[in-house]
Amino acid sequence: MACSEKAYKVISKNKYEVYIFYLKMPKMNGLELAENVLAYEPNAKVIILTDSEITGCFNNFVDLGISGFISKSYSKDQLIRSVWSAIEGQVTIPIDLFTQLRLSEYEVELENGQKVILTEKEQEILVEVSKGLTNEETAENVYMSKRTLERNLTNIYKKLQVASREEALVKAFELGLIPDVII
């Protein structure tokens, strides 16, 4: 339905497994309509149909509990797959938005409650160090000089409040900065 008020009247009287709302509806946009539906039906699956950029409001969508985003240009088959994905508890997002979601910083909380932020490069260094590589090998793998690597390691030790490579690795594993299985 193009008119959000008419859509709201219909959906307030009926329950559906999946709702698809166009983002730019008149009077009440798709986000507002989704918010209203999710207020009285928190487990509803809501997919936002859009022809515009959603990066700026992506966090609002996530906080609200939106199940996916699809483009108006999707084919009938893509639309059906998106609906089934929502029913199965999967999220559908455009690939260009997905690539923007990559973390560049990792925030962890130490035992004393202090929050520490490690950069993507620092986390990469910890992963390489956990493989048992020497400083020379690690530096080569992360594309920096040995001296720069050593400065980075010192900075990591300070952030994690440890005194050695071994202590840093133990703490990094405990904090989930290094996967349990290193490939």
Features:
Arc Repressor Mutant, subunit A, transcription, 183 residues, alpha/beta, WalR-like, Rossmann fold, phosphoprotein, 3-stranded parallel beta sheet, two-component regulatory system
Layout of helices and strands:
Layout: H1 4-13, E1 18-22, H2 30-40, E2 45-50, H3 58-64, E3 68-71, H4 76-87, H5 95-100, E4 105-109, E5 115-119, H6 120-130, H7 135-141, H8 146-160, H9 165-174
Parallel strand pairs: 1-2, 2-3
Antiparallel strand pairs: 4-5
Describe the overall structure.
With 183 residues, the protein is of the alpha/beta class. It has two domains: 3-101, 3-Layer(aba) Sandwich (Rossmann fold); 106-175, Winged helix-like DNA-binding domain superfamily/Winged helix DNA-binding domain (Arc Repressor Mutant, subunit A, Orthogonal Bundle), CATH 1.10.10.10. Helices cover 49% and strands 14% of the residues. The chain contains nine helices and five strands. The protein has helices at residues 4-13, 30-40, 58-64, 76-87, 95-100, 120-130, 135-141, 146-160, 165-174; strands at residues 18-22, 45-50, 68-71, 105-109, 115-119. Strands 1-2-3 form a three-stranded parallel beta sheet, with helices on both faces. The chain has a two-stranded antiparallel sheet with strand order 4-5. Helix 1 (4-13) packs parallel to helix 2 (30-40). The longest helix is centred in the C-terminal third of the chain and has 15 residues, at 146-160. The model has no long low-confidence stretch (mean pLDDT 84).
